[in-house]
Amino acid sequence: MRIAIASGKGGTGKTTVAAALAVGLAHSCKLRYIDCDVEEPNGHLFLKPDLTVKADAAIQIPKIQTEKCTACGKCVEVCQYHALAKIGEQILVFPQLCHGCGSCTWNCPEGAILEVPNNIGILEQGFAPEGIQFFRGMLTVSEPMPTPLIRQLKKWLPRSADSIDLFDSPPGASCSVVETLRGADFVILVTEPTPFGLHDLRQIVSILREMKIPAGVIINRVGKEGSTLIEKYCEEEGLKILYRIPFERKIAEGIARGQHLLQIHPEFLDDLETMMDHIKKECD
Amino acid sequence: MRLIISAQEPSPDGPVDRRFGRSSWLVSVDSETGKWKAFENPGASQSGGAGVAAAQFVIDQKAEVVISGDFGPHAAGAFRVAGIKMRLFIEEVTSVQSAVTLWSEEKLLVFH
Q: What is the CATH classification number for the domain harbouring A88?
């Protein structure tokens, strides 16, 4: 079963929830945690894995073989991302704009384009305490596109029929999030009871509707003002509120110390298990 | 010489556009005859690589000088390879025509 944890607004508590779920479920099933926030992974702060396997991740970018190139400009014409330009008899490549689609290589009438790897980051895996199998990607600083790395990270995951896979998504609602959510059976949306939280929640919900993935909401940092703002929206949208995490200094202190939620509040385990039962039912 | 200037409107009397890659129009002017033509900037509507798209257009037009408020690294890279001179607006530039005049007086800043 593949469960993604997303939010819309950043900083609402995705990794807090994902790490707690990973720890809570690991004792009763095969649990794999995948940190898809390749620009700023933080799952390791709470799960403390021993990362023993590392692989380079690269996308294939074009290299023009000048002796074969006739500067016909076909590659420039087909490139959707403007990663190629024709200047006189020369073809210039802009690696940072290249999405690695291979269109130029395919369309070159002279076969003058070679694909060469352009390293964009690394993939790592290992085991964390509690028997959690931990995977993550780290995008090299200054690389502009996380999406190809996330795609490779997901492909790197060995096939498994009996595991529960938790995909800790990046914040926001753009391509990197869509790539993370693709193929998920259920998405847990972590939000907070603020106008910003609601605004961004709406964005991610509309994306999930398009992708046709069922979702539920966890409201984090519920203080004495309550969370009517979010509750009302969820009711309108037919979204179930799976859990409410209280706004507590004790939780903030624990997180700042690198403790996961179940170390701070071990009694939350029962609630997490009830939540999982509900999610499993929704997926069937 | 053939100049291309980034502009907000398709006219030499209209205001310049200080962006290059995403400017709405690119106005081509023959500095000797004063003849001009306005083109929609192909980079304006692109989600990415706008600078490259706009630069490719300028290169295909065989312009010798391109004038704007700034040039991003991709457009600048392309123009350097093409040998097209880049010039920047100064504060006194308001309309496209004023940019042409100030260019001819060599008052515009050189962008390397």
A: 3.30.70.20
